[in-house]
Amino acid sequence: MLVAHSFIKVAAVTDHDSVRGCRATVELASAYPDILVIPGVEISTEQGDVVVLGTDELPPKPWTPEVVVDFAKSVGGVSIVAHPFRAYGMGERARNYKVDAIEVLNGGSSQEANIEAKELAKSLGLPGTAGSDAHQVSELFSVYNKVEAALDIEEVLKAVKKGSVSAQVNRGSIRF
Q1: Class for the domain spanning 10-168
Q2: Do the Cβ atoms of 85 and 117 come closer than 8 Å?
């Protein structure tokens, strides 16, 4: 079930290591033409989690950051280091990979971890994104991205890559 929201017009669905939920959500969302669903996946690598936006397929194995990032580029997608300073995050190792963005605001991370992620993105000159990391409906919309783009998947992905995105906190949900 999709949850209506007054200002959220785009949702990215990124299950861990699976695209099954994403495909189902894209199909369900087709009944709501004013909501764009961006397909994606969050891949678990030994070095940390990487989100790929813009695909409904899994990258080839072995799942290393290099393979996942190269896959994202090959499909015209966006690669994002997920929650870098939390469990299963890359931390400073993110510097070793040519990702498109760093998740600087994660709904499940501590304020300190989000601040560290923001500093990492800034030092790398990469855009910072937000991810609710929602595992329950009640966790949706705690954070969101403000993207300057048309309501089109390719346009949104291009905007993220060029930095026309800002990570936002929904008032009252978490402090940053």
Answers
A1: alpha beta
A2: yes
